[in-house]
Amino acid sequence: MYRLTTRTRAGTATAIAVLVLVIAGMALPAFASRGVIQDLFFILTMLTLAQIWNLLAGYGGLVSVGQQAFVGIGAYAMFAGVILLGWNPVWAIPLGGLAALLLAIPTAYFAFRLQGAYFAIGTWVIAEVTRLLVAQWKTLGGGTGTSLPREATSNILGTDLIRALFSVREAAARDILAYWLALVLVVAVTGGIYWLLRSRLGLALSAVRDNVEAARSVGVDAGRIKWAVFLIAAAATGLTGALIFMQTARISPDAAFAVTDWTAYVIFIVVIGGIGTIEGPILGVLVFFVLRSALADYGSWYLMTLGLIAIAVMLFAPKGLWGLISARSGLHLFPVRRKLVGLKIEGGI
Amino acid sequence: MIWLDTLVQGILLGGLYALFAAGLSLVFGIMRLVNLAHGDLIVFAAYLVLMGVTLLGLSPWIAALVAMPLMFGLGWLLQTVVLNRVLGKDILPPLLVTFGLSVALQNGLLEAFSADSRRIPAGSLEGASLDLGLVTVGVMPLLTFASAIVVIVALNGLFYHTALGRAFRATSDDAVTAGLMGIEPKRIFAMATGIAMVVVTIAALYLGMRSNFDPSIGPARLIYAFEAVIIGGLGSLWGTLAGGVIIGVAQTFGAAVNPEWQILAGHIAFLVVMLLKPRGLFPRAVD
Amino acid sequence: MLLQTHGLTANYGQFRALFGVDIAVAAGECVAIIGANGAGKSTLMRAITGVIRNEPAMVLHRGEPIGALSSAEVMKRGIAMVPEGRRLFPSLSVEENLLIGGQVRKAPGPWNLEAIYELFPILRERRRNPGTALSGGQQQMVAIGRALMSNPELLLCDEISLGLAPVVIRDIYAALPKIRAGGAAIVVVEQDIGKALAVADRVYCMMEGRVTLTAKAADVSRQQIHTAYFGEAA
């Protein structure tokens, strides 16, 4: 019998390693300093955003330069939930995902009218419009922004337990909670994307990316798939944005809708690591963090270097660092390619 | 009368946006490449002109004339060394490369010139105005608009009445067959980007003389340029001027109602046109 | 030899389309390359003109290796092509389509705008029209005229009769002797054996990426061609 499978030995090893890593990660706050936890929070949230953008651009062919719209609207919705509705910040995070999902509907409606490269700038315009509109929202601080009220930050769900568990101060407890949530989110998002790519939708997605006409001719509805991917990505980005700004507890339109932080960095992570693979963003975020730490004292030289590295990677290794590694070793930690297993096929193809 | 005044200011502002957009439109028309660093290249050219004025003591006009061949060379090199290598069926590599260039340029400028606002001194032209009876218009905005028209006439002339323009159109239609005519598409692309950078220098001159600039303002200029191109319809330079005028008028009217709404009004005008006419007002090109 | 291929191979990805093709064209000669659909004739043309690049020594022009040159460089050496499907530039008028053919390489010779209009008078009437607004036959005339504008030493004509009515084909083939009289060698790639043999001095027949017959057009028998064309005895 023939059977289609995506299973490889490396894939199974990865599954075990991921499980061990997640358990270790959960236990880490017991040993690690607050600084380490904050760094890890940064890495995990950037990785989440990178995986999502990779889904859009690397797998869906949707090169969005406007993801900051969803980070920002998610963060602002979370703040609105806390400040205007009096919700606990943790419960307000899903509100961020919902707001981003709602924003994604008109965004997709406009941006999908634009083809290829113009889609990219179209998403950017919409992010700008959203930023300018949010800056008009005076109850949330207008153009200067606002902070989460003291009584909300001191009562975040679960922080009492964390304080008791690790005997840390309130601010550190908030960091640990945010870190745990980020860990859950990154596993959920990466796992979700992995599952998506292995599902029928994933097959359809790669068919659409490779050739829209051909995909349509075998009954794949390209339009609907693009909509689905775009909305899913927006909602997940909104959740991430809400979580990021729950941790900082301070928001402004310029910070929440920053194209550099939420799109440029993310694109560089994906490009350097390797676009169109799940391993790429993971490798990319590590490289990004190391570079950031090493060049932290050099201000704008750092960003300039990052831009130039991205150009060099696109020129000389368009599949990124992971592409180089997997080409040499044939390694696929997250196998999504289907293989025919069973009897040998006689005569070749 | 205040509304007429606002309208005229808006139309003239549209000339500046058309200048931003003309180079973008040219490059897209010939090689289907969207240069995300276009706005940053305008800012870069503005610093180049500024250096000519402050370091060499040239007048802004002469400084721009000196900057033009330099920018042409830069565009030619950029296309030859970088962009030609990533052009292809997949739009992702050129987009990501120009995005990387945008970030690198912005931060390079920041390091070289700091975040301080600068301005190209325009001497007596600054603040000079003409009384046209019904309205009074600034000489500088008027010059900008006139330059936009000259640039568009010149580009159209180049495109439709010269051998180079013929090669541009042929390469844009079918690069493989153009090769059979002895035309090297990559060389044509390099010429096109070089010419776009000359237009960018003209845009930069007016950008720098009319208002303050700093290294961070490039992306916003890219967006205005992009909106003007899309509103006008891809491939039509006169359409691009019309698009620039629409953005300009929307912005001045927005600002007249509430200064905070200036930029927003321009973007909203763009979105409205997109809703009503998805292919722009004067579509020419198929894609 | 004006043009020679030497063990020319060509691949489309994994798929090999040419297996060591040797042909030769002398100055002023007219050579026909015939073969069924998919025999590799058009691929051969694409490989000669640099649309597909090869090892340098696989294609020789006057003894110099040109196999790795770009199509623009090949064209500048005086090898012009009338591509399959005509491929006129839609943004250019008829006259501009002609002009662009002689824009980069303009060797001295009999061909210029006036001479092309004399060869195909209908084009003079249509010179302001967009190239793609013409009938198929007229478009083919533009494509031939465009290639002639550079006064090439060698004119490659890829399937110039494809999709055209017999009376139109006759007009177009009537132009070939005049082109030869102007001094250019001609290679016609054809599926129509009769047409090809009528104009050619020599004929190559191709099948499945290989040359299966090389002969003088005057001497070749129906039987030989049939075997070379279809790969079996009739």
TrEMBL record, chain A:
Topology within the bilayer: Multi-pass membrane protein
Entries under Pfam families matching the protein: BPD_transp_2
Presence of the UniProt keyword Heme in the record: no
Keywords recorded for this protein, A-Z: Cell membrane, Membrane, Transmembrane, Transmembrane helix
Protein name per its UniProtKB record: Branched-chain amino acid ABC transporter permease
Listed transmembrane segments: 42-62, 69-87, 93-112, 176-197, 227-245, 265-289, 301-322
Superkingdom, natural source: Bacteria
Compartments, as annotated in UniProt: Cell membrane
The keyword Transmembrane is annotated on this UniProt entry: yes
UniProt xrefs under PANTHER family: ABC TRANSPORTER ATP-BINDING PROTEIN (PTHR30482:SF17), HIGH-AFFINITY BRANCHED-CHAIN AMINO ACID TRANSPORT SYSTEM PERMEASE (PTHR30482)
From TrEMBL, chain B:
Domain of life: Bacteria
Protein name (database record): Branched-chain amino acid ABC transporter permease
Name of a matching Pfam family: BPD_transp_2
Keywords assigned: Amino-acid transport, Cell membrane, Membrane, Transmembrane, Transmembrane helix, Transport
Originating species: Kaistia terrae
Main location: membrane
CDD domains with a match to the protein in the record: TM_PBP1_LivH_like
Membrane-topology descriptor: Multi-pass membrane protein
Stretches that traverse the bilayer: 6-29, 41-71, 130-155, 188-209, 221-249, 261-276
Presence of the UniProt keyword Coiled coil in the record: no
UniProt-annotated location(s): Cell membrane
Family label: Belongs to the binding-protein-dependent transport system permease family. LivHM subfamily.
From TrEMBL, chain C:
Database matches in InterPro entries: AAA+_ATPase, ABC_transporter-like_ATP-bd, ABC_transporter-like_CS, BCAA_Transport_ATP-bd_LivF, P-loop_NTPase
Pfam families: ABC_tran
Keyword Signal: no
SUPFAM superfamilies: P-loop containing nucleoside triphosphate hydrolases
SMART domains, sorted: AAA
Record keywords, A-Z: Amino-acid transport, ATP-binding, Nucleotide-binding, Transport
GO terms of molecular function: ATP binding
Record has Ligase as a keyword: no
CDD domains the UniProt entry points to: ABC_TM1139_LivF_branched
Superkingdom of this protein's organism: Bacteria
ABC transporter domain boundaries: 3-233
Family: Belongs to the ABC transporter superfamily.
Stated name of the protein: ABC transporter ATP-binding protein
Organism, scientific name: Kaistia terrae
